[in-house]
Structures are given as C-alpha cells and as structure tokens.
Amino acid sequence: MAKNPIRHLYVHIPFCAKLCPYCSFHVETAMRNKSQRFLDALLIEIERQAGAFKIEPETIYFGGGTPSALSLSQLEFLLPRLRERFDPGRLVEFTFEINPATVSAEKARLLRALGVNRISMGVQSWDDSVLKTLGRAHTAAQSQRTFDTLREAGFDNINIDLMFAIPGQSHEQWMRTLEKTGALQPEHVSAYCLTYEEDTEFFRKLQTREFAQDENRDADFYEITMDALGAAGYVHYEVSNYAKPGRESLHNFAYWDGRDYLGIGPSAFSTVGAQRWQNVPDSRDYADRIFAGDSTASFTEQLSDATKLGETLAFGLRTNRGVPVSAITPWREQMREFRELGLLENSNGRLVLTRKGKLMADAVAEAFV
C-alpha cells in the first residue's frame, strides 16, 4: 500500500481508426465487438487498484490510441462509473486526447458535461500534404472545425499536438503551421520532432534510405519552433511543450517530478514508490487476465533510490524549472562539462538548459540514466 494517496491517473484507450506509419504506441484498429468487454475490464482494474491504493486524483489523462473514438454511449457508460470508484473532489485537470476526425459537437458537449476540462488534439500539421505523408485520418479543415467546435462546447484549455522534421516537409510549411497555431491561440502547444521508432513503417523506410535524417535540419526546425511560439506568447516550459502562463500540463509535471501515478489499460505504466510495472500490451490478453483474476503486469521492476533520483533530474532538466545544483553531486563532473560547453547555466541555485542546451537535451538527460 502506498504511503500517500495516488494523485495521478492515466487511462489507455488503444483503438484507432487506422494505424499511423510512424506510431510505436500500443494501438489497434477498431473496437468491433470487443468494446464492451474492454470497457468492463478497465472498470474492474480501477476497482482493484482502488482496493490496493487510496486514489484521490488531481489529474486524469485519457491517452491512446484515440480515446475520442469511443462512442457517445460508451463515454456515458465509462466516465461516470470511473469517477464513482474514487473521490473526485481534488480533481483539477481531466485531459482527453482526441483525433479531429472523431469529435462531433454532441461528443464535445458530452465530454464537457462528464467532467473533461482539458483537450489534447492531435493536429500534427495544418498542411494536407504533410498530413498525407503522416497517414493521418483527418484534414486541416477538419482540425479547424473541431477546434471551433471545442471552443463552442466551452473548452478553455486546449492543447494542440504538432510534429516537425517530417519527410518532405519544408521549413516554410512548418512556419505556416506555427503561424496558424499561434493565430488560434490554444492554451498549450506540444511540438515534437519526428522520431523513427523500430517496428514502424517509417523506420523501415529509413533503413532502406527512402527517408533520411539530418540533425542540422532538425535543429533548424526546432529553433524556428522556439522563436515562433515565443513570439506568439507561449512560455517554453519543457523541451517539447509550450504554454500560456498558468496553462502548463499538470499531469505531465507529475511524471517529470517523479510523483506516483497509476496507469490503467493495456500497455499502461505505473510507478508507485520504488515499484514500476507495465500492463500487457494487448487488449484481448489484458481483458482475459482481468476476468480471470490474474495480474495484468507484463513487466515489473524495483527502482533504487539512485535510479529514481537520476530519472527525476533527467526530466527536471528538460523543464524551465531546472534542478537544484545541490542535487547533482554524483554527476558533478558531467555537469561541469555541460556548463563549459554552454549547454547548462546556473540560475538562482538551479541548473537549467540554455537555448543551445535545449537542442541537445537528450544528450544531457542521458548523463543521469
């Protein structure tokens, strides 16, 4: 039993209308006839965890997959029952990931009525040719309509997910996407450099040299991003995340600060105290185990104090908060080298990434893990 209540809850909905060629997350196409069985399994896992831990969430995050692929009736079934299984009195942020092609005005209003107060919308680009390369199921026009629909439904905390360094994408196309995003003024923007993950179609094309990576070009994309979103009024508070003041992602900060969290659903990770585990990455196997009363964990590990500290520092350095200089004693020599290279600077007793350091954030973070 955890000493303190669990304040952060992640729920994984693995179903998508189609599989994107760059995605390595656990996703499956369509829910078909297994939908009700899957939803029942989620609720049983929540009930089990509520028996093992005191759950008083301050943040809930529905990710995937495409959580917005759930139908109106499925949402009306799942969300109220989920909230019944814990005390929602402390809930501050309830995020729901959506695909622009799967949200009607009725669904947006229902999500708002069921307590969702933050939306993360996977736009990726405002250019249809780039969306076609990514294999996305929506168009730029659908993204615009969905954004307007969300505003009309009362959502005043919207994140837009974007992606850069896509094969064939020009700096000019990316700049237009950033300008369009800035004009809409969402409260939050996540902008990620495309990564080529193993077991994806994009990775295979990289291996056959149909696609190519260029670190200098990627860095140019990133600098364009920092400048454009900064000029549009966003605070660059984490390497890939930008927010209006006071609209940072509370749920993500729970991960970055090393706090306890529970993951529900297939492939979801949990970290409580010194223990970390991952559920099986298969929805059928996951549900079978739930109904058989078996453990859903496919992986467990015990974290040492040194490992937890290293992870917390690695994530902390990616944020504009940085980390206390006093905490990096075991890595003092590496940090001195990074300062000499101009990647880190001391700000009021805390180490923070410089602009140059943000371009090499992964290399800095790797020193701790």
Overview of the molecule:
Helix 1 (35-52) runs parallel beside helix 2, helix 1 packs across helix 10 (283-292) and helix 6 runs parallel beside helix 8. The model has no long low-confidence stretch (mean pLDDT 91). This protein has two domains: 6-256, tm_1862 like domain (pyruvate-formate lyase- activating enzyme, Alpha-Beta Horseshoe); 306-366, Arc Repressor Mutant, subunit A, CATH 1.10.10.10. By secondary structure, it is α/β, with parallel strands linked by helices. It starts with 5 loop residues before the first strand and ends with a helix. The chain has helices at 35-52, 72-84, 105-113, 128-134, 140-152, 171-184, 201-207, 215-231, 250-256, 283-292, 305-317, 332-340, 355-359, 361-366; strands at 6-13, 15-16, 28-29, 55-64, 93-98, 118-124, 158-164, 188-193, 235-238, 241-243, 262-264, 269-272, 275-279, 297-302, 323-324, 344-347, 350-353. The strands form four sheets. Strands 9-10-8-7-6-5-4-1-11 form a nine-stranded mixed sheet, sandwiched between helices. The chain is built from 14 helices and 17 strands.
Question: Tags for this entry?
Answer:
single chain, 369 residues, pyruvate-formate lyase- activating enzyme, 2 domains, 9-stranded mixed beta sheet, 3-stranded antiparallel beta sheet, 14 helices, 17 strands
Q: Please outline the major beta sheet.
A: 9 strands, mixed
CATH topology category name of the largest domain? pyruvate-formate lyase- activating enzyme
In terms of quaternary structure, what is this? single chain
**Mean of residue pLDDT values:** 91
Major sheet: order of its strands?
Answer: 9-10-8-7-6-5-4-1-11
Number of domains as seen in the coordinates: 2
CATH architecture of the largest domain: Alpha-Beta Horseshoe
- Provide the gyration radius in Å: 21 Å
Shape: globular
> Percent of residues in helical segments?
40-55%
Note the gap between the termini.
Answer: 27 Å
User: How many distinct helices?
Assistant: 14
How many distinct beta strands?
Answer: 17
